[in-house]
Amino acid sequence: MIKIEHLVKNYGANCAVDDVSFEIAKGEIVGFLGPNGAGKSTTMNILTGYLSSTAGRVTVDGINVLDDPLAVKRRIGYLPEQPPLYPDMTVEEYLIFVYNLKGCTLNRTKHLEEICDVVKIKDVYKRVIRNLSKGYRQRVGIAQALVGNPPVIVFDEPTVGLDPKQIIEIRNLIRTLGKDHTVILSTHILQEVQAVCDRIIIINKGKIVADELTENINRVADGSRRYRIKICGPQREVLNMLNDRSDISYVEALPARDGDAYIYMVESAPNIDMRKSLFYTLSQKGWPLVGMEALGMSLEDIFISIVDRTGDDARVRKATKTQRSKRSAVDLEKDLAASIIDATAEAQKSIAPYDGED
Ligand code: ADP
Ligand code: MG
Question: What is the pLDDT of residues 127-167, one digit of tens each?
């Protein structure tokens, strides 16, 4: 359905997309995952015909974007990072405007009604877009993408700026749409693609670093054996004991305490489950274990594991390892919360009419 071959986009001396190739089959829900500045929006804008490429080839349904951008646009519903909304219009006026703009020939009333049903915006249909909450505006943005019933839908960071409840609703909506559409979901949030996508393409600094089924990425994520543990016992001695163990590869004492317990972040050596053995040791020492909680993996950790595993780029591996050693365990725990806060900050930007270019 979608084929991207050796795509390159330079902004002056800055290479935003560096020889990216991937294919997406009909009906797939694919996550395009990468940190801010990785080149996601640039790739999405080229794929949807809104931005020209420096080199490479993009085809949708066998049609080259350069040969017939209109035919490609007809096949793709696109929700860009900044949804192309006109705040002074009502939802109804705006969707009729989009309907006309796309030269849609489906029965207008019926078609728009169906879309409003799917994205659940019937109750705000007559309202001015400016006055809608960010969650509703995002739904209107999705409605706009669905006009004309395109077989492919591309979402660029669709949950940025939404509160946790809205995030869940939009993810559910995307999953529903995935039942009868080919979907690309671009995001910097690992949990988002894990929750929604069958397959995950990871991009970093303009290059694809992984293209895997979600279950494989999950396996890598689950392979993380990082725990926050609470132990009642003399901190220095406990720390020495943890450091001396061969089944623990990393230990950090956290500044927090819980009653008379000190809190540590430990990471077990690969493919080793040290939990039971640690329990027995602590029990022998008379240091009660009062808490053990598995910590999730951040996008950065996934990068490290994947690059480590594939051994593709030793330079990247070394750089990311150094970075990791500087990260504190507290940071790790806050990853998801931080990405939501990030997102909220971005949403504060005013929503301007979309002019077709970044
Ligand atoms: P992402 O969507 O993954 O956050 P982008 O595709 O927006 O990343 O950006 C990739 C890189 O290209 C970044 O380094 C960004 O600063 C740069 N970039 C994006 N748009 C432009 C532009 N219009 N002019 C110059 N540089 C740009
Ligand atoms: Mg982006």
Answer: 999 999 999 999 999 999 999 999 999 999 999 888 888 89
| Side chain identity, residue 186 | S
Alpha-carbon distance 198 to 265, whole Å? Answer: 32
Query: What distance in angstroms lies between residue 188's CA and the mean position of ligand 2's atoms?
Result: 8
Q: Which positions ≥6 away from 135 have C-beta within 8 Å?
A: 162, 163, 166, 169, 170
CATH no. for 221-340: 3.30.70
**Residue list, ligand 1 pocket, CB within 6 Å:** 11, 14, 16, 34, 36-42, 358
Query: Of all protein residues, whose CA lies closest to atom 7 belonging to ligand 1?
Result: 41
Pairing of strands 76-79, 152-156: parallel
Q: How many residues does the chain have?
A: 358
In CATH terms, the superfamily for domain 2-220 is P-loop containing nucleotide triphosphate hydrolases (3.40.50.300)
Taking the CA of 33 as reference, the closest ligand is 1
Whether 2-220 shares its CATH topology with 221-340 is answered no
Among 9, 32, 33, 42, say which to mutate for ligand 1: greatest number of ligand atoms within 8 Å of CB: 42
Q: Tell me how far the alpha carbon of residue 42 lies from the centroid of ligand 2, in angstroms.
A: 7
d(CA 129, CA 204): 35
Query: Is 249 in a helix, a strand, or coil?
Result: strand
Lowest mean pLDDT among 56-70, 130-144, 268-282, 341-355: 341-355
Asked whether 102 and 75 are in contact (CB, 8 A), the reply is no
Single-letter amino acid, residue 235: Q
User: How far does residue 45's CA lie from ligand 2's centre (Å)?
Assistant: 10
Q: Is the pTM of this model over 0.85?
A: no
Q: Whose CA is nearest to atom 6 of ligand 1?
A: 39
Q: Any idea where the domains of the chain sit in the sequence?
A: 2-220, 221-340
Phi/psi of residue 15, nearest 5 degrees: -95, 105
